[in-house]
Amino acid sequence: MNFAYELLRSASEKGYAEIVTSLITAGVDVNGRYRNRDSALMMAIRNGRTEVVSLLIEAGANIHLQENGVSPLMMAVRWGRTEVVSLLIEAGANIDLQNEEGDSAVIIATTKYNLSVLRSWSSWS
C-alpha cells in the first residue's frame, strides 16, 4: 500500500489544502492510484473541495483521465460543482469526452437537470 498516496487521497477528500500542498511539495504523485481507487482529483471533486481541486490541477493532475468511464469534468457536472467545472474548463478539460454510455458532460448536465451547470455553459464556449 502506498501510504503517501492514501494520505493525499484522504486529504483531498476532506479538503485539507495545507496537507495536500505539503504532500505535493514532498513529491507525491498527484495522479497516483492504488488498487483502482478514485484519484485524489476525483475525491476532491466529489466532495466539493474547490481549493484542493485547484491545487491538484496546478500540480499536474490529469484532467482527462477517465475512471470507470467518468472524466473529472463529468463528475463535476454530475455533482453540480459549478466552480470546479469552470476550473476544469479553464485548465483545458475536453468537454467532448464520452463515458461508457456515450454521454458527454453536456448530456449528463441535461439529463441530471443541473440548471446551475447549464446556465454557466454559455461562458465555456
Automatic annotation (TrEMBL):
InterPro entries per the UniProt record, alphabetical: Ankyrin_rpt, Ankyrin_rpt-contain_sf
ANK repeat boundaries on the chain: 36-68, 68-100
* Pfam family membership, one: Ank_2
Query: SUPFAM superfamilies, alphabetically?
Result: Ankyrin repeat
Which keywords does this Swiss-Prot/TrEMBL entry list?
Answer: ANK repeat, Repeat
Q: By its UniProt entry, which Gene3D superfamilies does this protein fall under?
A: Ankyrin repeat-containing domain (1.25.40.20)
PANTHER family membership: ANKYRIN REPEAT DOMAIN-CONTAINING PROTEIN 39-RELATED (PTHR24171)
Protein name (database record): Ankyrin repeat protein MM_0045
